[in-house]
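Lay summary. Proteins are chains of building blocks that fold into shapes, and those shapes determine what they do. In this project we predict the shape from the chain. Here is one chain we studied, written as its sequence of building blocks.
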Amino acid sequence: MMMSRAVPLTIVVAIFLLNLTGQCHGQLQFGFYKNKCSFDVESIVRNVVQIKYFNDTTLVAALLRMQFHDCFVHGCDASLLLDGDNSEKTAPPNLTVRGFEVIDAIKAAVEFFCPGIVSCADIIAIATREAVFLAKGGWYNVETGRRDGFISKAADVDLPAPNITVSDSIAAFAKRNLDATDMVYLLGGHTVGIAHCFLFQDRLYNYKNTNQPDPNMDLVLLNMLRDKCPQNSDGSNTTFLDQNPSSSFIVDSSYYQQLQQKKGILQIDQDLASDPNTKSTVENIGNGNSFSFNFGLAMIKLGAVDVLTVDQGEIRRSCRSVNKP
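And here is the predicted shape, written in a compact code that computers can read:
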């Protein structure tokens, strides 16, 4: 396997273990495109992602969010990529999803070398893995063989809100065959990226209608966020989800350490550190226990949610529209 830089021994071991123990989901499999194209599909994706990433390191957060938002609605079928007046893109939670032009660029490249072979759904999964690796998040193998869906409706978008309770979040993940541990690791995607003030402003001024701030927030962080997010502002300002300035663009366990210091930005994030169903997992990760490997396993499970395979979907010619008969 060719990679863009030297691979640490821990990552080599992780790849071996994934190959040894990873179970394929449905008709998905590792190396699905082998011998289906005269070029290495994953290398094509990798080259485009590298170019885009080195021009914009926020790409990793954008792609992580894109994959999560796509897979949580109708499964991982690239329905989020479809254009339309009432498509998933137009739903409020998806208005700030970014990276569509990156997927377009990758699709153009794979169509040039491997026309009609690679699905947009697989491109999202592979591209996200490549960005995570570039952001020092470790390597995980990606199962492929997905097909693209035909349906994309804004009304179907039902994503967990940032102020959802931990128990309700666990239930939402369980509907996608993801358990509480998977949830904690997947929310670790917040180790990169930003949040707009309106998503957490209630924690600063009127937590649970008390007219008081959230007592479970670090006071230094509270004062900093109040400066950034004035009470009567429109909430459009942003802050990093990982408050460690040396780690805001790195996929690592710093996010969990911040939660243990009461520096979580979103309510669901901070509540992970105190809820009895998730507290011990947060502590274990925060103490440095195998974040990259287990995050990769959780991403593989996310990528297998309700996928469409050979007789259920299509290979789109353009990721933004279904093929015309």
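What the prediction tells us: Residues 1-24 have pLDDT under 50 and may be disordered.
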